[in-house]
Specification:
The protein has helices at residues 2-14, 18-95, 101-111, 124-131, 141-173, 178-181, 184-188, 200-206, 211-257. It is mainly α. It has one domain.
């Protein structure tokens, strides 16, 4: 095609057909410009198609992360409710005149179950899209701001929950008089005791609850109850946040499929 244009142009010049040559040259320029514009349009269309696909993929990944967080938080809410029940039962047992240490030990175990668990929201997609510089792909500015606020709020709540849980774990680890406070009964109930070496019943006979130790355990129970109740409120707040952002992402993913 280029050779053809060159041949025509040279022929016109030889024939001194200047006006026709100028018309032809202008036409050639117009054709080139149109070709460039078409190429740019195709490139823009192709890039938009790629961006749309990437944007849709990010929304789907965000939604999967939110689903995963919802599952973890729901599980932790159930564990926290068990802790609250254990703390209430612990208080009820300690208020009685006669305390059954085996029953008390079971309730204490409920109170401190997975006390060292650290809640960490899934931020794989969020960190990826920030570090890769692809935030511009999220063209729904309202939703993008809500996603950013969601993870910022989640980070703050997470810090509070983990700080509270650390206090609960520390309360258990700081026990010095395990026999006097009855915590030794929890240790003796574990499978780590070797009955060929350790006389469990003899050790259990040493466990007793003085009024002082009874009050210490009641204080423990109140602390367990307070921390677990507060954490449950925080988890409920997270669930509300998750439900809000989940509904927005589900709607966005659905619209992208249509």
């Amino acid at each position: 095609m280029i050779k053809l244009f060159r041949t025509i142009r040279q022929a016109m010049i030889k024939e001194s057909k200047v006006s026709k040559y100028l018309q032809y040259a202008i036409g050639e320029i117009v054709l080139v410009v149109i070709g460039i514009l078409i190429a740019l349009q195709i490139n823009t269309w192709n890039q938009n198609r790629i961006n749309n696909s990437l944007e849709k993929g990010y929304y789907e990944r965000f939604l999967n992360d939110v689903y995963f967080d919802e599952e973890i938080v729901t599980q932790q809410m159930e564990v926290t409710k068990i802790r609250i029940l254990g703390a209430n039962n612990m208080l009820g047992i300690l208020q009685k005149k006669s305390v059954d240490l085996d029953t008390l030990s079971k309730e204490i175990r409920k109170c401190i179950a997975t006390a060292n668990f650290n809640f960490k929201p899934t931020q794989i997609t969020y960190e990826d899209i920030k570090s890769s510089g692809n935030l511009y792909l999220l063209r729904d500015l309202g939703l993008k701001n809500k996603i950013d606020r969601h993870y910022s709020d989640l980070s703050g709540i997470m810090t509070t929950i983990n700080t509270n849980s650390a206090k609960l774990a520390d309360r258990v680890l700081l026990k010095e008089d395990l026999i006097g406070t009855g915590f030794a009964n929890i240790v003796l109930s574990q499978n780590g005791i070797n009955p060929a070496i350790v006389d469990k019943e003899k050790l259990k006979s040493l466990i007793h609850l003085s009024e002082k130790n009874r009050m210490l355990l009641m204080n423990d129970a109140i602390l367990y109850l307070g921390i677990s109740s507060r954490n449950l409120q925080h988890f409920e707040k997270i669930i509300n946040e998750i439900n809000m952002i989940k509904s927005l992402l589900e709607a966005k993913c659905k619209s992208k499929k249509q």
